[in-house]
Amino acid sequence: MLPARRTCDSLVDTYIKTFESVLRIIHVPSFLRDYEHFWEDSASSISSTDETFPCKLLLVAALGSITFTPTDSQQDQATSCREQSNNWISYVKDWLARKSMKGMRGDLSMAQIACLLALTRHTHHQDSAPMGVAWLSEGHGLTHMAVQMGLHREPRVRSPNISVKEAEIRRRLWATMLELSLQVSVDESLPAPIAPESYDCEVPSSIADDDLVLGVESQSMNQSSVLMLLAQTQRLRLRILQLVNAPGSSKTYQECHALASELNAACSVGESKLHSQLSDFQNSLLTSFTKPFVLALHDAFAEEAYSKPEYYYSRRMRMEISAQLLSSTANQGSYSALLTNGSGQFSVTHRQATMSLCLDLIRDFEEEAFPNLDSGSRAKLRDILSNTITTFKRRVEASSGSDTTEEFILFSCALSYIESLQRKEDCEKVAGRINETAKNVLGVCCDTMEKQRRRESLTETDIWMGR
To answer: Domain boundaries in the chain?
Structure first.
């Protein structure tokens, strides 16, 4: 089921450098040691007696396949791994369902598998989950599992004699499980998965994996630094969910504005300490995990801003946050690969931010309230949109035209309309420009689909001729 060792090495390395540098799920030295034993002892076969590590490995490989940036010679292998990755995820879901039916006991390994599986919701298209693991698709499932395991309690208080290593792993897992639950809640407009005062587990420390036995904290950035930043704002983001999504909750503009300002300030302080040391992937994921909460606070008021000028700030804030969520797409790295190859919640957030920015820019140009003040910022936002549309084009090409064609066409035409408004062109020129754009974009989509049809035709011919 797994790819060859060499390919698997690349996928594991990619996962560790990307997702594991933000969400601390595995203890990297222990995982790599088990990884070596797996290839040495089992000859890459999955043992029926203990499938825990192979299941972790399948999920790590699946996640790594989405952010892997292959060389030209690796393109076919990378595509094959991405296509197989859905089968790897399905295998683990079925295995977990069987374990659930037998009454599995929650331990740290099971929590790690649950986290990895929940993370695939953000990277892969999700089929219906088998009975027994449907809770992982629910907003509060991970948090409930963590609470049942006691991860919400500070390890040193709960078990004074616990080792430094286990205590830190428990803190990391709690922060990660809560973070993934927070993301589902904000994505699906669900209430907070837990009250801010219902846990006392401390924020993960800056101890590097190799130093966990000694418990020596690092003075420089390491793999846990981004999770520390996320954990420091989790209680605040829980308060935001309570205000925005709790049934019967009444929110005022002043409350929303105050919470949004508090979160923006907290993010700025944390990022300023590490910004120069963060990779593009870490910076982008940090933004995509925190800024949608600001958007949730301002979104309703931003819509009313067109009839109620007192909410104009919310409209501008929505444009700013949308631009921040999209500004990383220009980089040709792991995050760009995630947006190009992924089919989960990251791509949904990317699409929603693009739609929001297009509509707000169009309304800005049509109103023309501050033409001199806004000209510079509009040009920058237009450039961000242009780079974003290039990402949608790459998604079309990566999927051979089976995914994102509608968005690619729609947003390309929207950008064309925005450029016409900027030039103050008459209606006839506007219509002509949009028609020309639609024709060109449809040509790209058709060419992509035709290339795929030819490849499939050649494959069928080879099979028929017995090659």
So the answer is: 278-462
